[in-house]
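This week, work through this protein record:
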Amino acid sequence: SACSAHEDYYAGAGSANHPQTCVDWCDATEYCQHVGMRLCGAKAGGPLNESMLTDPTADQYFDACSSFGAHNYPYGGDPTVSSVDGFLPDACNGNEHVLYETLPVAFLPTCQSSVDGYEGVFDLSGNASEWVDMCTEGALPQDDVCHARGGSFADNYGKQRCVDYSTGKRNEPSVYFGFRCCE
């Protein structure tokens, strides 16, 4: 697992209240550590593994996004009915908005849970996929692959579910990937 320093990132005009994208997993990890936090990962601390991704007792992101496993999307949907039950096309910033760019954080007030204790955490679906503390080492360090959760502005309902994830190379920034720091 190798991280290399990047001096550049994109912070376009008017992006101050947008999620920071175009950072790789390493830079996201370093930023979170710099502010005394970490990338969201295992509730017990440390990285996630495959078995934790749908366990609200083990995964910080899944717990917050699904309201402890109760919802398919941050705002609702019953996973016992179907995997896409409750999808609302305009609730979060996915490709249904046709803007194909990030929106300011909390711009869509519907993109949060209404469950007590989970409300007020915005944009866990859509806007920017979020790097989490879960990587798989490749044959060479440049082949390491890390996970991001939540789907981005380019993703449809199938990638905006709380159970879904995308992957990217550890040292490759993406316009679709941002991050969230957890305690």
